[in-house]
Amino acid sequence: MRAAVLHEIGQDKLEVLDDVEAVGFGPGKVKIRIRATGLCHSDVSAMNGVLPQPAPFIPGHEGAGEILDVGDGVTHVKPGDRVLVCWLPACGACPSCKRGQTQLCLAGFMNAGTPNFKRPGGDVFGFAGTGTFTEEVVVDAGCAVPIPDDVPFDIAALIGCGVTTGLGAAINTADVAAGSSVAVIGCGGVGISAIQGARLKGAAQIIAVDPVESRREAALRFGATEAVAPDALADAKQRITAGEGFDYVFEVVGKSATARTAYETTRRGGTLCVVGAGALDDFLQLNMFELFFDEKKILPSMYGGGDVLTSYERAIALWRAGRIDLESLITHRVPLAEINEALDQMRTGAALRTCIEI
């Protein structure tokens, strides 16, 4: 079986091998034939060590495909069913799940420490307990979410992570108010989805901030009212808000420097929504006086800040109704054999989302 493997953390290229086997199938498990998977920035962050992940591992967590087999006790899917991969399935029994905060369930993270692939040389992990840069993967049954027949695999893959994360940040976590002003810092696939979410919620002004010109141009097509480079953000804040700051600012980069900029760009009493996944040793510095005096809300948003199954259904309904554009998020397509080309497209900012077709 073919799969793209990172041998050591810190390497910048993947090796596509044909001697990989999906393992761990049994009760409560499913085997999925991956048909399409998106390249998410979190995959790159795991490769370079920003996000903790044991190696060797197969990146990818934003995928969709067909059920090949189901283990004992699995009743919600059967062989042949079309599914998307949920990389953070809810167990339904932990305190977070019982509180209705299923996006905070830790059951899925426990899977990340158990290898679900092997090669002749030893065990191989799947990123975030999944690993979708491969032809087949074995995951917990909760990771397999059925999708309707009219949802293409590439669209379903995007809904499995980036779209749900960005839309949910604006709709669930920040709950953007109609008529408000919004700035989104970082306009890749997740940032563009946050822009679409803010537009759906009725934001009057949506400022897209990104260093890459093509991404700024794309942001305007997806609903941003203005797009600026990072060095022009201060001027935009002055022009649009008379220096007060934006009602909502979304940080979709995952770095303390941009989070600090986002905080300073948020008006007093406004909301900073942290969407980007950053490193354990990257600390955001805030002083106690400004926290008290400015009364700015700092809201982290994990996987869209809500029940992911509900968020999937909402995204599909909005896509069907033409209220969100998901097809145009996929700016590049490559076969698995050219996965390193997809990595280059992400690192240079050339792609919003690259779909790896398997």
Main attributes of the structure:
single chain; 358 residues; 6-stranded parallel sheet; 12 helices; 19 strands; 26% strand; globular
Structure, described:
This protein has 358 residues and is α/β, with parallel strands linked by helices. Helix content is 29%, strand content 26%. The chain contains 12 helices and 19 strands. It has helices at 41-47, 95-98, 107-111, 153-159, 162-173, 189-200, 213-221, 233-241, 256-265, 288-294, 308-320, 339-348; strands at 3-5, 15-17, 21-22, 29-38, 57-58, 62-70, 82-85, 117-119, 122-126, 136-140, 144-146, 181-185, 205-209, 226-228, 246-251, 266-274, 297-300, 330-335, 353-357. The strands form 4 sheets. Strands 4, 6, 7, 10, 11, 18 and 19 form a 7-stranded mixed sheet that branches. Strands 14-13-12-15-16-17 form a 6-stranded parallel sheet, with helices on both faces. The protein has a 4-stranded mixed sheet with strand order 3-8-9-5, with no helix packed on it. Helix 5 runs parallel beside helix 6 and helix 5 (162-173) crosses helix 11 (308-320). The longest helix has 13 residues, at 308-320. It is globular, with a radius of gyration of 20 Å. The mean pLDDT is 96.
